[in-house]
Amino acid sequence: MAASSRGLAAPPFDLGVRRVRSPPPLTAPPRRRTRAWGRGVGRAGVRCCCPAEKAGEWWLEPKKQGGGGGGARRTRAEALPSLPFPSPRSKRLFKQQDFSSRCSPRGPAPESRDTPPKRDTGIASEKEWGINILDEKVSESGTNEDGSTWYRESGEELGDNGYRCRWAKMGGQSHDGSSEWKETWWEKSDWTGYKELGAEKSGRNAEGDSWWETWKEVLYQDEWSNLARIERSAQKQAKSGTENAGWYEKWWEKYDAKGWTEKGAHKYGRLNEQSWWEKWGEHYDGRGFVLKWTDKWAETQLGTRWGDKWEEKFFAGIGSRQGETWHVSPAGERWSRTWGEEHFGNGKVHKYGKSTTGESWDIVVDEETYYEGEPHYGWAEVVGDSTQLLSIQPQERPPGVYPNLDFGASERQKDDPPDEPLQQNHRFALISHYDSSQVNTSTGRFTVNYRLLLPNLQIREREEREREQWSHWISCSGSREKMRTAPAPLVLLLLVHGLASAASAAFTCNATGVAATCRSLVGFNPAQNTTYSAIASLFQVSNASLFGSNGLSLTTPADGAVAAGSTVRVPIPCRCANGTGWSDRTPVYTVQDGDVGLYNITVARFSNLTTYQDIGKANQLPDVNKIQVGQKLWIPLPCSCDEVDGAEVVHLAHVVAPGSSVEGIAMEFGTNASTLLRLNGMSDPKALMAYQVLDVPLHACSSSITNNSLDYGLRLANGSYATTANGCITCSCTATTYRLDCHQSVGQSKCPAAATCPGKLFIGNTSTSGCEVQTCSYTGYTNTSTPTGINISSTITTDRTNCGSDGGSPPGSDGGLGLRGFKWSAALVFLHMIWLSSLQ
C-alpha cells in the first residue's frame, strides 16, 4: 500500500530527537487503485473587474496538508523546526470551478490587481486564468477617481509559415506610483499545427512586496512518435518588502497520447533565518515503467538542518523503493534513518534499513506489490482541460500554399514502436486542420490531411525560441516581427549585441597547483528532442557520469528520451589558468553539413553555453564564419574550481532563461543573490540578460581524497554520484552530512578483491564501539589504466555527548564542510594500503 509522503509536517520546534520505530509490514490493498498523489489545489484565478484582495503574510500562506506523513515506509524524525515547509502535492481538482469573465475593453477600467500569487498551487487551468483576447485592436488608457492610472492594449502579429500571435496587455499604477501591476496574455499558432496559450503578470504594492508569474500551455506534434503532445508549465516568485522573505516555484507537466507523462516541480522559500527547498519528479513511459522521487531539505542560521527524500522505480511488478530522513540540531545532535524495499514480483519483498539510534532490520516478507503505474491525471484529462488551447485558429492557408518542408528531422526514438502505416504510406498526420472534436483522446491521432507533408518542426521550434528571446522586452508586436524577418546578418548582430554583451563566457578561476583542476557542471538545454546517449556523445562523457550528475540510476536506458528545453547537467573536466576556467580541451566537435558558422554551433548545438568568440579564439580561427565540414573544433565551456566563501563548491554553468531574475535563480539553486552578483562580476541585478551564462555555486560534499590521487578534483553536488578508480569505487553526495560517501562498486569483475581497513571494515562502512565511530574512507587511487593501488583511510571520531565532559572538541566547533554544528572531534589517520589484484 502506497503511503502518502509528499511533505514533511512541521510540528512545534523541538530539538529532542525521538527514537523511531522499525517500519511495520506494508499492507497491500485488494486491488490496484488510482494515483493518490496529485498537485496543489486552491489556485487563485485572477479576475478582472473585481476588488483586489490583499493576501496577508503571502510568503507564509498556510497550506492544507494533503495525506498523512507517517506511512510504513515514510517514518521520519519528529524533531523538526516550525517553519513552513512546502506542502504535499495534494489531489488535483478535476472539476473546473466557475469563474468571472474578463472585462470588455470597452467596459470599465481594469481594477488594480496588486495581490501576489499563492504558493504551492501548481499549474492553474485555462479557466482559472480566464484569458480572453479580443479580435479587434485596442489601445486605451485613463485615470480613475482616486488618481490611479490604467491602460489596456491588444493586437495581432503575423509572420512567415502562417505564424499568428494575438495578444493583450493591461496594467496600471496607484496615484503615487507606489503600487504597480502588469498582465499580458497571448495565443500563438502556425500552419504546422503548433498552438500556444500563455500569460504573464508582475507587480509590486505599497508595502514593497514584488512578484512575477508566468503560465503557458503548448500543443504540437512530436517529430519522433508522430503523436500529439501537450506541455504545461508555470513559474512564480515573490519577495517581501518588509522582511528577508521570498519564494520561487517552477512547475511543469508533459503528456503524449500513448500515456507518456512527465511531471515535476522545483521550489524554494526563505523567511529571515530559515530556508527550505523541495524538488520532485514523476515519469511514466506509457508502457508500465514508473519513476517517482522527492527530495526536501531545510536549514536555519542557528545550525538546524533536516530533510527527507525517497525514490521508487517499478516495471511489470518488479522494482524498488528507498529513502532517507535526517535531522541535525543546533547542538550537533544528529539523527538519520535509511530504508529500502526490493520487490521481486513473486509475492516476496525484501525490507531493510538502519538508523543512527542503533535500529536495523533486514527481512523478507510475503506481501503483494503495489505501485501506481499510470498518472491519475493523464492525456484524456489534459485534453479535456485544454479546450481553449485546441480552439486556437491559425491563419487561413491559401490554396496551394504548404508549410515549409524539411526531411532532415532527427532520428526517432529507438524504443518507440512503429506506427501503423497510413494510406499510400504517408505517415504525416498534421496538426494543421482540426478542432478539439477532431482529436481522438484514446489514440491522440489527428485527422490526416494527405495533401500536406510533415512540417519542418526544427524551423518552427527555432522560430519560437527566437520569438521568446524578445518576449520580455518587446511584446508580440510588429517591431519584433521586423527583427525576426530581418536579413540574417542583422538578426545575428541583434542577437550578439542584444543578448550577450560580453564577448566571452569565461568564469573567474584563480586556483593554482593541484587545485586548478576539478570536476565542474554545465546545464545543457537541448534545442530538440534527443537522448541521453546523444548528449553524452556530444560532450564526450560516459553515460554513467551523465546519469550520476543527474541522480539517475545506472539502469536508465541510454536511449531514453530527453525532451527539448529540459535541463541535463553534464560533468566536464575543468582547468584554470590565467585567472579563468575552461573545460580541459573537451569536448571536440566535428563540423557537420548545415553548420553555417560558429554562431550556429554555439546556439543550435551547444545551447548558448559558450560564445562564438570563445570558440574562434580557442581554435585560432581568423574568420568565425568560415568553417569546413569535418573540421574539428574544441568547444571551450566555462567552469571554475575556486572556493566560494571559504567552502568547496561545484560550479554550474547555467544559461539564463528569458524572464529570469537574479533573485529567482538564487532561490532555485539554494544560494543568495549577492553571491551570484559577485561571482559573475555584476553590480546591478537588472543587468541580467536572457541566455547569459551564469556561474552558479552548488554546495559540494567534502572528501578524504588526498592531493596525490588522480581523482583529487572530484567534487559532487547534493543528489549526485560518480564512479572513480576505473569504475571500482562509487561516491555519492547527500545533504545529510555533506561528506562524500564512497563504497566499492557492485558488479565490476575487473576490480581487485575487497580490501579492508583495520577492524575488517570495507570502504564506506563504519563500526561503533562505545562512543568511538570508525569509518573506512576512500582517499584516492594512483593508476589510470588498472587499479593496482588505492589509498584507504580510517577516521576515528568521538561524540562528547556520549563520552562525557572530558575530551573532544569545544562546543560549537566545526567538524568540517557539511558538518557545521556537530559536537564531534576527529583525528584522521591515513593508512596507505596497496590493493593488488590480478586481472586474469
Explain how this protein is built:
By secondary structure, the protein is mainly β. The chain has 3 domains: 1-485, no CATH class; 503-699, no CATH class; 721-831, no CATH class. It is built from 13 helices and 33 strands. The strands form 6 sheets. It has a 16-stranded antiparallel β-sheet. Helix 9 (598-605) packs across helix 10. Mean pLDDT is 72; it is low at 1-106, 405-475, 477-502 and 805-840.
- With strands numbered from the N-terminus, the spatial order across the biggest sheet is 1-2-3-4-5-6-7-8-9-10-11-12-13-14-15-16
Distance between the termini: 47 Å
- What is the domain tally? 3
Percent strand equals: 25-35%
Helical content class: 10-25%
Compute the number of helices: 13
Radius of gyration: 28 Å
Q: Regions with pLDDT < 50 over 5+ consecutive residues?
A: 1-106, 405-475, 477-502, 805-840
> Which structural class matches the secondary elements?
mainly beta
Report the strand count: 33
Mean pLDDT: 72
What shape does the CA trace take? globular
Sheet of most strands: 16 strands, antiparallel
Main location: plastid
Subcellular location: Plastid, Chloroplast stroma
Pfam family, one: LysM
Protein name: (wild Malaysian banana) hypothetical protein
